[in-house]
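Collaborator request, handled under Task 6.
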Amino acid sequence: MEERAGNIDRALKHHMIAVRGGDNDSLEIIKRMYKDKHASKEVYMKALKSYQEYLSEIKSPQRDKAAADDEEYRYY
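Structure tokens returned to the collaborator:
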């Protein structure tokens, strides 16, 4: 909603918070914003790094097995 209202900086802040919590949709939105020149390369790279850090924190053999057995449990 913030992006539609023209509040690009605020939208990016909200999406960055969501990315740190593992929200892949927000990462994709930041990617689109970068492609549309509404976000800098630095912001996009920071979002990617935050998302990768999240994934490394939650990674476990049990999650990997569940993801391999059933697409519903895919976390990446």
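The cover message to the collaborator said: "The radius of gyration is 14 Å. The longest helix spans residues 41-58. Please let us know whether this matches your experimental observations."
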